[in-house]
Every structure is written in structure tokens, then in C-alpha cells.
Amino acid sequence: MIDLKLTEQDPHAPIRYQYAVEDVLYTGKSPYQEFAVVTNPFFGRMLLLDGVVQFTDRDEFYYHEMMAHVALHAMPSPRRVIVIGGGDGGVIREVLKHPSIEQAYLVDIDPEVTRISREFFPAVAAGLDDPRVIHAPMDGALFMRQFEGHADAILVDSTDIIGFATSLFTADFFDRARAILGPNGAFVTLSESLHFHFEMVRDVQKTLASVFPRVDLYTAPLATYGGNWWCFAVGTNGLDLRVPARETVTPTRYYCGDIHRSAFLPEFLYRRLMEEGRKGF
Ligand code: AG3
């Protein structure tokens, strides 16, 4: 029997995941990255960018729900959201579950991500043709500089913090996000794993704290991201995201009020995270 294997090229992890590959459905390249869509007997279809797993059919909802719903449920009535990255549509699909949403900007630098998602991941791409979605295929940092107006939430669903994604983790970018958010808005970005990238998580918190009056950190268990204890870094102009402001929208598979409240790092761990020189809890 043919035994095809894929070794993930996770840029920052101290381990390598290896996946059995049943089928290679697509490989290709854009000016920004290399694509692969493969199937695995356990995870189903998987999308890889530059050899790094972005999501799988089986577990994408954990990440997409947690990226969108924590910030949006902390607000009574979010209307306008900006998603930076996330061209596959997974976060947008979750954002659109909130009936108060009027506009959802999708700002991915690479339109190929959207095309491939539509073709191979229809359940993830499901919201992309919704009339509330405004497609802005361009550089996220540039979009933020040019954007006039306000947003209730800015959600950064980028690739790992390396290469062109690093422009989405600078103090300048965070400050622009802060300015676009109203007093009750929220900024959320991925910040890797507490098990594997402790110092990277701290660096993102520190940069956020240099521009946002309030910062926080919540996590979710993700099977396919190296280190698994995956972080979502938060900056707000004062809004406390720790408590949901209303009932959970439906349908969700993982996110709910109890998950929301328990996802945030307890204060004693947060303090340790921020201690200079510490490499783990
Ligand atoms: N964006 C986050 C991908 C991070 C993957 N990192 C890793 N496996 N080390 C995913 C895009 C999904 N909308």
C-alpha cells in the first residue's frame, strides 16, 4: 500500500506534525504563498499555506468560532467588522451569524485563498457571497491606513507571525486599529501557543499594551496548530471582553457562554506571562 506522508513546516514549533495523505487535491502558488489541499483520513480536507496547516474540515470551527464570537458577544449589537486575513471565509461565516451585522470587510492580501476555499471548502466559504460582505483583497496594513470610519471589531486571522504577516503585529498597526475602533470596540489577533511560543505571546501583549488602554488574552484548544494551547490577544479602548453581553447566537458547535467566560487567562497566569525573562509558567 502506498504510504504518503506530509510533514508540516511549522515555522516556530519545536516539533513536526506528520499527517497521512490520502489524496492531493490541489497544489499551486500565488505571488504570496504556496498552496496545498490534501485529504487525511481523520481530519478530512486540509488547507496548507507554505506547508503550514491553516485549517481542516474536522476542526476548523473551534478556531473560527473563537476568533469571532468572543469579541462580538461582549457587545450588545455589533454592526461593522473588519477581518484582516481570513480569505477562506471561516471567520466571516461566524461574524455573519450575528443578526446586527451590517458590514463585514474581508481584507486578505491574497485572492487565491478565497478562490481555493470556494472550490475545496464550501462549508468554510459559505458566507462569502453574503451581501453584507465587502471584499477588499489587499494588504491589511495598507487597508487600515486608508480606512475612514469606525468598526466595532477588527479580527486578524493571519498566517503565523513570520514573513508578510509580521506587518500585522506592529505597534503602528495596532494603533491604527485602536483609532478605527469606537470606545466600545475590540481588536483580536492570533498570537500562537502558550506551550511553544511563550515569549512571542508576551511580546504581542506588550506591543498591544503600548497602544491599547486595555489588553487581555484568551485561548482555545486546537488540535492541528503546533502547541495546541492557542492564543487570541485582545486590545480594547476600555471594553471588558471577559463577560458575554448576551445569549449565544446559533448555531455554534464549541463557543457558548461558559466557554467564553473560561477561555480567558486567569490573572495570576497573566502576571507570570508578563514577567520579563520567564520562558513558561
Ligand atoms: N489562520 C491561522 C493559522 C495559524 C496556523 N499556524 C500553525 N499551524 N502553526 C488560519 C486561517 C483560517 N481561517
Protein described:
This protein folds into two domains: 4-54, Spermidine synthase, tetramerisation domain (Spermidine Synthase, Chain: A, domain 2, Roll); 60-273, 3-Layer(aba) Sandwich (Rossmann fold), CATH 3.40.50.150. The chain has eight helices and 13 strands. The chain has 281 residues and is of the alpha/beta class. Helices cover 26% and strands 29% of the residues. The strands form three sheets. The protein has a seven-stranded mixed beta sheet with strand order 9-8-7-10-11-13-12. Strands 3-4-5-6 form a four-stranded antiparallel beta sheet, with helices on one face. It has helices spanning 60-73, 90-95, 111-120, 140-146, 171-180, 198-209, 257-263, 267-273; strands at 5-7, 18-20, 23-29, 34-40, 44-49, 52-56, 80-85, 103-107, 133-135, 151-157, 181-193, 214-221, 229-236. The model has no long low-confidence stretch (mean pLDDT 97). Strand 12 (214-221) and strand 13 form a beta hairpin. The structure holds 1-{4-[(3-aminopropyl)amino]butyl}guanidine. 1-{4-[(3-aminopropyl)amino]butyl}guanidine is lined by residues 10, 52-55, 86, 88, 90-91, 157, 159-160, 190, 225-226. 1-{4-[(3-aminopropyl)amino]butyl}guanidine binds at residues 10, 52-55, 86, 88, 90-91, 157, 159-160, 190, 225-226.
H/E series: EEEEEEHEHEHEHEHEHEEHH
Distance N to C terminus: 45 Å
What small molecules does the structure contain? Answer: 1-{4-[(3-aminopropyl)amino]butyl}guanidine
Going by CATH, the architecture of the largest domain would be 3-Layer(aba) Sandwich
CATH T-level fold name of the largest domain: Rossmann fold
- Helix/strand/pairing category: alpha/beta
Mean pLDDT: 97
